[in-house]
## 1
Amino acid sequence: EVQLVESGGGLVQPGGSLRLSCAASGFTVSSNYMSWVRQAPGKGLEWVSVIYSGGSTYYADSVKGRFTISRDNSKNTLYLQMNSLRAEDTAVYYCARVIVGQVYWYFDLWGRGTLVTVSS
Amino acid sequence: QSVLTQPPSVSEAPRQRVTISCSGSSSNIGNNAVNWYQQLPGKAPKLLIYYDDLLPSGVSDRFSGSKSGTSASLAISGLQSEDEADYYCAAWDDSLNVPVFGGGTKLTVL
């Protein structure tokens, strides 16, 4: 079955760190573009980061310099290392597979999400 | 403030038809494909429409998408109670160089 399963969320103090994982099955992470998208409580969707199949990485301005996206090809797993966490980073974090073309960019597969709460 | 603009909420009776609008600009909707996502209560988003008007396998043909200029619409016909959800439009933005979302529209089936 093709699916994504996130883990690693939890409660962390402001300024702390957390690493999210997203285990993929049914397809190869390294052959695809993979993203993280977050949703603050009661709010809309916000794109966070992407890693291209070639390894290039990009980030939303709100997390640039604090978050790092990576993958482990041997484990077929996507990661999001989050440092210097702030209260405004509190959200459900979804990993998603990205389909990209010249004029299109969409998320065709989503995980169930993992909740990150930043609070003292 | 979202880059793409959607109405916060819409409502309609069962078996009727409803449309949800999504307004953008030349750097996003005007130049790139629009996608729609459905988020059922307490669930993860799910791709509903891609490339303006295409349905992924398994999505009911009661859902349809359209685009004109810098605006797009999602239409749902034959409304059912299970259609109650939040709906998000999205597109790549050439100026920001990121994918952007609308703020979401909550659909209530009366």
## 2
Amino acid sequence: AQKVTQAQTEISVVEKEDVTLDCVYETRDTTYYLFWYKQPPSGELVFLIRRNSFDEQNEISGRYSWNFQKSTSSFNFTITASQVVDSAVYFCALMSPGAGGTSYGKLTFGQGTILTVHP
Amino acid sequence: DSGVTQTPKHLITATGQRVTLRCSPRSGDLSVYWYQQSLDQGLQFLIQYYNGEERAKGNILERFSAQQFPDLHSELNLSSLELGDSALYFCASSVGLAGEGEQYFGPGTRLTVT
């Protein structure tokens, strides 16, 4: 079975601080995909990044960076120099095929981390 | 704007009623997914259609059904509604069948059952 755990329910920081959101996943599949989505107060889900299980290179996009470590089944997300506009709920998600490939397409989400950035 | 549209934005109805939520995928996307977001269950996958065919099923209740039409838009039908069905329902779309492409989400339909 697939599972995603985001142990941090809420994080509160002051603007310009760096913040890391943790994500740990479980799957028996060797091929899978990991995602991060942002849900701002307006409610929509915004895609941030997708990584496949064979690509362990860390990725940086502006103030965002992602650290994928297969050995610890973690896919952590860091925001550098946080801003008030980063305040949102962040979801980590896993897509893996499951037995017979029947779960392909299905995103399994973590419970989300509420990030509040104070001015 | 993700390019995925959902209507209506809000829906308020009574227990026992039936509603239909509609989703239009991004241009060129063949897969449509439905998710439910509630306070107690979080974000849960309901069902996926690819080019008109059902491809994957999650924790979708028997009272719920979906379909994808030839023009690729999709509808999620919820019947015999209960208070616990109150949630935000998202539709997402992607180019491929599975992990080839990321899923882009619509703005959601907020359903309130009273």
